[in-house]
Amino acid sequence: MTSFQPLHILAFGATGNIGKHIVNQLIRANPPFPKISIFTSANTVLNKPELLSRWKDAGVSVIVGDITNSADVKNAYQGVDTAISCLGRGALEHQFQLIKLADESDTVRWFFPSEYGTDPDHDPSSAHEKPHQVKRRVRKAFAEEVKNLKPTFLVVGPYIEMWVDGGPLKDAFGGIDVEKKEAALLGDGEQPIGFTAMEDVGKAVVAALQRPEVSYGKILKIASFTKSARQVLAEFEKQVGHKFDVKHIPLDDAKRLEKQYWDEGNPLAVVGTLRRIWATGGAVYEKLDNEDLGLHPDQLQSLEAAVRNRLNHVAF
Ligand SMILES: NC(=O)c1ccc[n+]([C@@H]2O[C@H](COP(=O)([O-])OP(=O)(O)OC[C@H]3O[C@@H](n4cnc5c(N)ncnc54)[C@H](OP(=O)(O)O)[C@@H]3O)[C@@H](O)[C@H]2O)c1
């Protein structure tokens, strides 16, 4: 199967944060994939008409259905050999049914579960991290139950775009407010982190599809660049030409708040856990698969380019 070439790709969750980038890169792939379809909800058809119309114009087939309805999914799988799940955290549980139906189908042989983030099996502590539990069970299902299809799991660490803007939790778990020229660094900010730009996640999916000999049945680890929070901040300061106000968040304070959020059932607890994992070495890897996938540094975003892209959206 290592010579397997995808002829018909179906993406779930395609219109979401990372799905958009994956589909955009699938459309741009050279040589082109013969057929690209997406499976989306009726709600998204109503809410994102421009995006869907642009994709249809680019030759993408849009299938409308409910991922929890087996008949809809079985119909959508007809003739599909490769399924790519980009479902959001709230929908990860639905993947078990999607994988089962793919395994039972006559045609689907390759499945990319929705990962595109922190390795849920990075080290022994990963087994206890709450945000990893569904992704770990998906990996286990492939190892123990799935018979007729292989997975590719793509680990990419934090998206640089989302990591920079800590949003309302910046002062609790870290982030950089570019407009206000303020930064909150979790811990000492010296820990290297493997960051990936969202566009590069799409490129990595395409590279994996084009090189089944590297990716079929594998866990792949990708990063656009590996830098510390301090280095990211320094690049912003350099390009803006101004020092930022910097505060450090003690790791113990962040851990206390993280625990409190989990105890209260606050969904923002996930952010705290992931940021704590990244700040303590959970997104650096012994070996990256960039080169094996043909993703050379000049094809991926550099820190300089990522910061430039972010600053292009700033009105000082
Ligand atoms: N590395 C990072 O920094 C990072 C950051 C964010 C996310 N991630 C990971 O990336 C993956 C995708 O996350 P995302 O943020 O891109 O997803 P998202 O935008 O929240 O959702 C993606 C799509 O999934 C479908 N969906 C979402 N919630 C659903 C629900 N409750 N029921 C049914 N369908 C639902 C919707 O598609 P349709 O309506 O079209 O069906 C939606 O557009 C996840 O595995 C997540 O953990 C990583």
From TrEMBL:
<keyword id="KW-0560">Oxidoreductase</keyword>
<dbReference type="InterPro" id="IPR008030">
    <property type="entry name" value="NmrA-like"/>
</dbReference>
<protein>
    <submittedName>
        <fullName>Predicted protein</fullName>
    </submittedName>
</protein>
<dbReference type="InterPro" id="IPR051609">
    <property type="entry name" value="NmrA/Isoflavone_reductase-like"/>
</dbReference>
<dbReference type="GO" id="GO:0016491">
    <property type="term" value="F:oxidoreductase activity"/>
</dbReference>
<dbReference type="InterPro" id="IPR045312">
    <property type="entry name" value="PCBER-like"/>
</dbReference>
<dbReference type="Pfam" id="PF05368">
    <property type="entry name" value="NmrA"/>
</dbReference>
<feature type="domain" description="NmrA-like">
    <location>
        <begin position="9"/>
        <end position="257"/>
    </location>
</feature>
<dbReference type="InterPro" id="IPR036291">
    <property type="entry name" value="NAD(P)-bd_dom_sf"/>
</dbReference>
<keyword id="KW-0521">NADP</keyword>
